[in-house]
Amino acid sequence: MGRAPRAPISPLGPKPIRRARCQYTRSRGLHACARTPTNSNQRGGAGGMTSGSKSGVGGVAAARAAAAGPRTVLITGVSRGLGRALALELARRGHAVVGCGRSADPIRSLEAEIASPSRHFLTVADVRSDSSMAELAKAVVEKKQVPDIIVNNAGTINRNNKTWNVPAEEFDAVVDTNIKGTANVLRHFVPLMLQKKHGMIINLSSGWGRSSAAEVAPYCASKWAIEGLTRSLAKELPPGLAAIALSPGVVNTDMLASCFGTSSALYQSTEQWAPKAATMILSLSLEDNGASLTV
Ligand SMILES: NC(=O)c1ccc[n+]([C@@H]2O[C@H](COP(=O)([O-])OP(=O)(O)OC[C@H]3O[C@@H](n4cnc5c(N)ncnc54)[C@H](OP(=O)(O)O)[C@@H]3O)[C@@H](O)[C@H]2O)c1
């Protein structure tokens, strides 16, 4: 791995970002129409798919995020990268984190670093395993930590390769983690949110879930799938629940280094990204159901 993209293609987003503040952008969906969410069909239908931008409302978003009471947030993939940084930021703001990842040592190290460790539930679990997600859901019920917000963040990317040269097991890993892993979480956690009659589901998408690039076809396919899955889910959810596809922008993580090589260092750090992402996530409303947003 390890070479920067050719051309000005923008992988997980456009170009090196040096933003002064978070830009909330809403992508135009396949069926852009007016945004008048009044019932579950409309909410999930065209509701979130309007174009436009929330740019300029950073102060409003920050105020809404700050005004929100403590939430319990499930984040998959907290052992490194975006998930870890988001977990630390949310905990710093007083929210409780339920987090998982496959590797035990990084989870222990997060436990040692996170604010108020006793408030959180960080554990080893693999989103590719349906039974593992069932166990996690059972555990959060027992611990009375049913999430108010789910961030389906765990993800993987294929090593840069032409589509026909991607080994079958690598293609499987991308699909099993990014698509089926998200579905495994939804299968066991949405029913818990339905019981509570509220919940925000945030599925991590990508610039490559709305565009394409050479040598990352499995990843692109998986993130386009996340966009479609999220829009369908949004149409199914009753009032009180919402689903959003969220592209995090371009951030210097192991995943970015996998496809960009050393150029990944040109992009924002996870520490720069996390406060913007946390504010945005905490300020999302039910009216955003079905939207495709970008940090
Ligand atoms: N970085 C970017 O610029 C960027 C851009 C667009 C979209 N995204 C999306 O943002 C999300 C996070 O990306 P990242 O850059 O932070 O990636 P990363 O640095 O590679 O981290 C991925 C995280 O997911 C976890 N994970 C992977 N497979 C898992 C599994 N089967 N079960 C549980 N956890 C699993 C990893 O932990 P373990 O290996 O310990 O399990 C790790 O904590 C992904 O969905 C990615 O597609 C990132």
Automatic annotation (TrEMBL):
<dbReference type="InterPro" id="IPR053241">
    <property type="entry name" value="NADPH_pterin_aldehyde_rdct"/>
</dbReference>
<feature type="domain" description="Ketoreductase">
    <location>
        <begin position="71"/>
        <end position="249"/>
    </location>
</feature>
<dbReference type="GO" id="GO:0016616">
    <property type="term" value="F:oxidoreductase activity, acting on the CH-OH group of donors, NAD or NADP as acceptor"/>
</dbReference>
<dbReference type="GO" id="GO:0006760">
    <property type="term" value="P:folic acid-containing compound metabolic process"/>
</dbReference>
<dbReference type="InterPro" id="IPR057326">
    <property type="entry name" value="KR_dom"/>
</dbReference>
<dbReference type="InterPro" id="IPR036291">
    <property type="entry name" value="NAD(P)-bd_dom_sf"/>
</dbReference>
<comment type="similarity">
    <text>Belongs to the short-chain dehydrogenases/reductases (SDR) family.</text>
</comment>
<dbReference type="Pfam" id="PF00106">
    <property type="entry name" value="adh_short"/>
</dbReference>
<dbReference type="InterPro" id="IPR002347">
    <property type="entry name" value="SDR_fam"/>
</dbReference>
<feature type="region of interest" description="Disordered">
    <location>
        <begin position="33"/>
        <end position="57"/>
    </location>
</feature>
<dbReference type="InterPro" id="IPR020904">
    <property type="entry name" value="Sc_DH/Rdtase_CS"/>
</dbReference>
<dbReference type="GO" id="GO:0005829">
    <property type="term" value="C:cytosol"/>
</dbReference>
<feature type="compositionally biased region" description="Gly residues">
    <location>
        <begin position="44"/>
        <end position="57"/>
    </location>
</feature>
<protein>
    <recommendedName>
        <fullName>Ketoreductase domain-containing protein</fullName>
    </recommendedName>
</protein>
